[in-house]
Specification:
The complex is a heterodimer of chains A (190) and B (233).
Chain A (H helix, E strand, L loop, with lengths): L19 H4 L26 E9 L10 E5 L13 E5 L6 E7 L15 E7 L7 E6 L2 H9 L15 E2 L4 E3 L2 E2 L9 E2 L1
Parallel strand pairs in A: 1-8, 1-9
Antiparallel strand pairs in A: 1-4, 2-3, 2-5, 5-6, 7-8
Chain B lengths: L1 E2 L12 H4 L7 E2 L39 E10 L9 E5 L25 E5 L5 E7 L4 E5 L1 E5 L2 E7 L7 E7 L9 H4 L4 H4 L3 E4 L10 E4 L2 E3 L6 E2 L7
Parallel strand pairs in B: 1-14, 3-12, 3-13, 10-11
Antiparallel strand pairs in B: 3-6, 4-5, 4-9, 7-8, 9-10, 11-12
Classes of the chains: A mainly beta (190), B mainly beta (233).
The structure holds fe (iii) ion (FE).
The site of fe (iii) ion has 3 residues of chain B, from strand 9.
């Protein structure tokens, strides 16, 4: 018996420098759609539970990327993913390259084997010069991250800190992403 | 399975990919619930004319300049199943090759009747359709000045984040496709053809709108080993 023939998935192409026209049209002065996608990841985030994440994406010349779009995806405080919340679409500032995200801290969930799931936010990044999206994660705790990843590959142990943001108050986080160099962020492939 | 049909991240002929791609190997992991889930968008966010770029920005009674076209097709998964409820967003330059964007440096005029973006959610049989105008080719800096083949940018949300795709549709017969470094970053020559919208005379309307057919396939859950994956990673 023959295996059913699989179709080849359509190749990715760069989103280019003008992705805003289609993805965040209001930035370009186009106001024709009902709403922009992913403006807020969760409805009615209280001041109490809100966290703020900001940062820049640095290219190989250590220049911040000003034409990137980041889509973030995360679970709720109970560790559950839902198709109607947890998604945000943000772009880096057209002049400074800084992005900002206001969200809530994702929770942990008890796995079937009794362990706790890791708490992280997925960052999905496209820009001019990226033929395929780059995917990384922002973890909150080193322990979460080690349980999640180190078993997969011991070779990345010295770079695990690239997936942990800087914070002084556990409310405001700085999460910079480095495409190359000494601080090169860990990117994932699935 | 080793896949050569997805583009290399770093491709020498595409200059900005050199500083905008990682130097180290990616970390291959099994997808978990975060990759197997994703946002779902409802018809409620779509206006009636969102998929008609000749109407959705123009003044009443006016039309953008350029050859009117339909771009249509089916969105499928790799098993050939049609995918419903897939949100498609498209954007493109006007007939002269100018984008409605503050960072587009070209001197070409904007078309006051053309915004250049549209949205659609695939129907129960995975079908989508846009009406628009043929975009112009445009120059951009790469190895000196080069020309992009005429293209429409496509963004798609499947039912899980693993299926998230941004790509471009090119036009059958465009002589600029062959030398485009973004197309040529795909190692498999046959896979490059999957990005070409085919002239579809069955979709021509009243002998004044041309049709193009562009089917899109979103990946499945299986791990996809790219050509540059090294053993043991
Ligand atoms: Fe373009």
């Amino acid at each position: 018996m023959n295996e059913p023939k699989k179709l080849i998935d359509t190749p990715s192409q760069t989103a280019g420098p003008f992705l805003h026209i289609g993805c965040t049209p209001r930035i370009t002065g186009i106001n024709i759609f009902k709403s922009e996608l992913g403006l807020i990841p969760f409805q009615d985030i209280s001041d109490n539970e809100a966290i703020n994440i900001k940062g820049k994406i640095y290219d190989g010349n250590n220049e911040p990327i000003i034409d990137a779009m980041i889509e973030t995806w995360q679970c709720d405080v109970n560790g559950n993913y839902s198709s109607n919340q947890g998604f945000a679409r943000i772009v880096t500032d057209l002049k400074t390259g800084e992005y900002q995200l206001k969200t809530i801290r994702p929770g942990n969930k008890i796995n079937t084997d009794g362990s706790l799931s890791a708490s992280y936010i997925t960052f999905w990044i496209v820009a001019r010069g990226m033929n395929r999206p780059l995917i990384t994660r922002m973890y909150f705790l080193e322990n979460d991250l080690k349980n999640d990843l180190v078993l997969n590959n011991i070779k990345i142990e010295d770079r695990l800190n690239t997936l942990i943001p800087y914070t002084e108050d556990k409310k405001n986080f700085i999460f910079n992403i480095y495409l190359q160099g000494k601080k090169e962020t860990i990117f994932f492939e699935f | 399975m080793i896949k050569k049909h997805q583009p290399l991240r770093k491709f020498h002929d595409y200059k900005s990919s050199i500083s905008r791609s990682p130097n180290k190997e990616p970390l291959w992991i099994n997808s978990s619930s975060s990759e197997m889930s994703g946002p779902l968008f409802s018809e409620k966010i779509i206006n009636k004319n969102d998929n008609d770029l000749t109407l959705n920005f123009s003044k009443i009674g006016e039309k953008p300049l350029g050859q009117e076209i339909f771009v249509h097709g089916f969105v499928k998964d790799e098993n050939g199943n049609n995918l419903k409820n897939v949100l498609i967003e498209i954007w493109q330059a006007n007939a002269g090759g100018k984008y409605r964007h503050q960072n587009d440096p070209s001197n070409i005029k904007l078309d006051e009747n053309f915004g250049g973006c549209g949205r659609f959610i695939t129907s129960s049989d995975g079908y989508y359709i846009f009406k628009t105008i043929e975009p112009g080719a445009y120059p951009y800096p790469n190895r000196g000045t080069e020309w992009r083949p005429r293209h429409i940018h496509f963004s798609l949300f499947g039912s899980m984040f693993l299926q998230r795709l941004i790509t471009q549709m090119y036009f059958e017969g465009d002589p600029l496709i062959k030398s485009c470094p973004m197309v040529n970053s795909i190692p498999d020559i046959n896979a490059r053809k999957l990005l070409i919208g085919r002239l579809d005379l069955s979709k021509t309307e009243n002998e004044k709108i041309l049709g193009y057919r562009f089917d899109i396939v979103l990946r499945g859950k299986e791990q996809t080993f790219f050509e540059n994956k090294r053993e043991g990673l």
